[in-house]
């Protein structure tokens, strides 16, 4: 059956000759092995085997309830805060199994930051939102905090909009500005990985574009895993995409290939809007 191509704005790429050349190129930052997860009796993740490359954008797509959010919340062990959760298997982060008993969840969450669907600034000033994490990590000197706050806000593409109002309450910002502030807050603790759970789904199109541009600029320095319902967004900004269905990974590969020449008929049906 002919694949319905170019539904999504996939950048032009040179056709590569062999499958080997198409392997994901960057070093892996996460590797999951036989990862299974249950909420009580309900199994939400089934034998997930994924290698997530560093300094690139990995999109997680799939229909509602397929386990996307659960999966990314395993990567910083946030999911274990839910009492009924039981996890089996391994998740290697830079070579260490983060599911082993002696791995510190606190240290992990410093390295692996998270941005949520709804912007969630603290009820504090713009400055104090960004300085919050560094202060918790013991940084007290105003000059150093000032530097961190400015750099984080610049890197989050929001400095020019807020530099004159750093003492104002963050709730006075627009939704899109609040989301970029939350990203700045995440950058201030110098993570290696940023997990994003539908970070633009509550935003208008202009704010969405700004956040997408920001995400793309961040991949030079950070490894990003983004859950999105928006397939155009996955096609526009990600380097590789995993398609989840009923708690399983159906297909994982380079984004342009997954969206133009999917190997599995279920991926093709999903990206062509036949279900989900
Ligand atoms: N706290 C919880 N307690 C019990 N079951 C849960 C809990 N959170 C999620 N689930 C179940 O686990 C499965 C996967 O849910 P998850 O939220 O990871 O899916 P999702 O793909 O992110 O969905 P959506 O796109 O709608 O956000 C679903 O069956 C869901 O009902």
Characterize the structure shown.
With 276 residues, the chain is of the alpha/beta class. The chain has ten helices and eleven strands. The strands form two sheets. Strands 7-8-9-4-10-11 form a six-stranded mixed sheet, sandwiched between helices. Strands 1, 2, 3, 5 and 6 form a five-stranded antiparallel sheet that branches. Helix 3 crosses helix 4 (142-155), helix 3 runs parallel beside helix 6 (175-187) and helix 6 (175-187) packs parallel to helix 7. Adenosine-5'-triphosphate is lined by residues 39, 42, 44, 62, 64-70, 82.
Characteristic key phrases:
276 residues; alpha/beta; Rossmann fold; 10 helices; 24% strand; binds adenosine-5'-triphosphate; nucleotide-binding; ATP-binding; transport; ABC_transporter-like_ATP-bd
Give a short synopsis of this structure.
This protein is an alpha/beta fold and 276 residues long.
Q: What is the residue-mean pLDDT, rounded to a whole number?
A: 91
Structural class: alpha/beta
**Strand-residue proportion:** 15-25%
Spatial sequence of strands, sheet with the most strands: 7-8-9-4-10-11
Largest sheet: 6 strands, mixed
Question: How many distinct helices?
Answer: 10
Return residue spans where pLDDT drops below 50 for at least 5 consecutive residues. Answer: 1-7, 10-22
- What name does CATH use for the topology? Rossmann fold
**Number of separate structural domains:** 1
What's the N-to-C terminus distance? 21 Å
The CATH C-level name is: Alpha Beta
């Amino acid at each position: 059956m002919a694949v319905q191509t170019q539904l999504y704005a996939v950048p032009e790429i040179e056709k590569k000759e062999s499958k080997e050349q198409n392997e994901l190129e960057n070093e892996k930052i996460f590797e999951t092995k036989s990862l299974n997860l249950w909420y009580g009796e309900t199994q939400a993740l089934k034998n997930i085997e994924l290698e997530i490359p560093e300094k690139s954008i990995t999109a997680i797509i799939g229909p509602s309830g397929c386990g996307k959010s659960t999966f990314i919340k395993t990567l910083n062990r946030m999911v274990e805060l839910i009492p009924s959760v039981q996890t089996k298997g391994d998740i290697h982060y830079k070579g260490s199994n983060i599911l082993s008993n002696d791995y510190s969840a606190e240290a992990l969450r410093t390295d692996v930051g998270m941005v949520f669907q709804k912007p969630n600034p603290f009820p504090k000033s713009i400055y104090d939102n960004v300085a919050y994490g560094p202060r918790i990590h013991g940084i007290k000197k105003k000059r150093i905090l000032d530097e961190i706050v400015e750099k984080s806000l610049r890197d989050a593409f929001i400095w020019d909009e807020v530099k004159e109002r750093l003492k104002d309450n963050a709730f006075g910002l627009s939704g899109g500005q609040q989301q970029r502030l939350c990203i700045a807050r995440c950058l201030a603790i110098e993570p290696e990985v940023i997990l994003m759970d539908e970070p633009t789904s509550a935003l208008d199109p202009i704010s969405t574009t700004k956040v997408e541009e920001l995400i793309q600029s961040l991949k030079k320095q950070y490894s990003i895993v983004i859950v999105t319902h928006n397939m155009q967004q996955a096609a526009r900004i990600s380097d590789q995409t995993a398609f989840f269905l009923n708690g399983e990974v159906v297909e994982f590969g380079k984004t342009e290939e997954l969206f133009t020449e999917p190997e599995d008929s279920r991926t093709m049906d999903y990206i062509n809007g036949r279900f989900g």
